[in-house]
Amino acid sequence: MTGSAIDISSRLELFVDDYLIDSMAGADLKLHKPVAREIALQHDRRWEGDATWCPVIIKDGDRYRMWYRAGTDTRSAAIDRQSLGSKPFYSVAYAESTDGINWERPSLGLYEFEGSTDNNILMDSTVCHNLSVFIDGRPGTPDSERYKAIAKGPEKVGDRSTLRGLVSDDGIHWNVVESDPLIVAPDDNWPMFDSPNISFWNDLEQQYELFARGWLPTPPQLHTDHTRLGSGYRTIRRSVSKDFVNWSDFEMIDMGDSDPEHLYTNAATPYFRAPHIYLMFPKRFVTNRTFFEDADAHGLSEATFMTSRDTLHWDRRFMEGFIRPGLDPDNWNERNMAIGTGVVPTGPGEISLYYVENWRHASSRTRRGVLRTDGFVSVNAGWGGGEFVTKPFTFAGSSLVMNYSTSVVGHARFEIDDGETTLSSGEIFGDEIERTVEWDGGANLSAIAGKTVRLRVNMKEADLYSIRFV
Q1: pTM here?
Q2: Mapping DSSP to helix (H, G, I), strand (E, B) and coil, where does residue 6 land?
Q3: How far apart, in Å, are the Cα atoms of 391 and each of 317, 412, 464?
Q4: Domains of the chain with bracketed CATH
């Protein structure tokens, strides 16, 4: 077998892209959509309201933790503003859960709101705006800085926004880092950090990564296109740092030849089961459509999906909506269906993400959406059947475990070949997160581990989500 081989060792590989796929016949990659579950938080506290947004969700030991922006929008007539004044009130608030389903707002006693500290407010916008929290996995990080965050700072440098860093030993009590501001917005045509700015520690690259909104001029050929982008469009840019203090110049992420669109947020995160695969859930902002004639702001929005293997080049083959506004008319405006940062396990075979509904309505809320484990994308074949063949790769282990689903008449059948030996499985059917492939004759894969192989998978009415050699 000739050609360079991909070494996947024993890591989990998701079929979110064609990283492993060489050819497909009668099969294709299929995007799966989250299923809406219960309301995680109804934004019904006085300090919350119709502009509560940007949740960050982390599974921290046996606790699920949520940091979110709580606030109201002065354009809404649905919110009683008698004691909040004429300007928007924004704060950083905090919630906890034991299962990721039922959430509570602990009384923290840290911030006085309307004469009482009986609330879950951590700080207000005089400290920061849109707090993006992560647990720092950098080796040698002191306990006092285990939790880090990036947020828009309250000060500007001229007309340019600033970002500040914050550190904490418990995720509740925060200190601004000495190098404040960390970053001043570039002197370009988007000198603002008014969208959620997402950061995390990239353990594979041993660096911090930061994703913020940017702005690009519209290509001339698109000025009259149906997207009506005008003079430019919102996009996403990246900066990196080795020490959380000194950050590289921003560079725009590369989304290949996908159509330019306004991308308002990003929600970038490594996938917790396969941290070499990065997920992003940008909120698509369509500026030229309005569902209600009397809307007080133009535009519509929904969540989209894309992935990366290096955090700079992003695969945006799936242009369709990931979470649509749906049947609820209060979701048909310009700031809805924004997915917060964080994908977490919430049950056997289940992962969850969280998104905002009913923006600028009294019914504003954060809802949980559910996918099967690894279930973002699958190699899919229908009734007529199909197959795919991988690129040459090497692996470590003696067994192949797959995450798959078939109909009662469907199947997946595997064949692995190292150029000298071919092992085959029988037809496998069912629906399992982890199924060990059994090879004809009872063979295991130890004899060909470390050799360059290809995998051929024949499928009928089946989805294959991920594989791992163990």
Answers
A1: 0.95
A2: strand
A3: 19, 19, 16
A4: 6-32+377-469 (2.60.120.260), 35-372 (2.115.10.20)
